[in-house]
Amino acid sequence: MAPNECMASLETAAEHERILRELESTDSNCIGPTLRSVYDGLEHGHFMDKLEARIRNHDREIEKMCNFHYQGFVDSITELLKVRAEAQKLKNRVIDTNTRLQNDGKEVRFHELKKCRLQQRNIASTIDKLTLCLPGIFYYTFTLMSHVVCALFKH
Question: Which residue intervals define the domain Exocyst complex component EXOC6/Sec15 N-terminal in the entry (predicted)?
Answer without folding.
Answer: 50-135
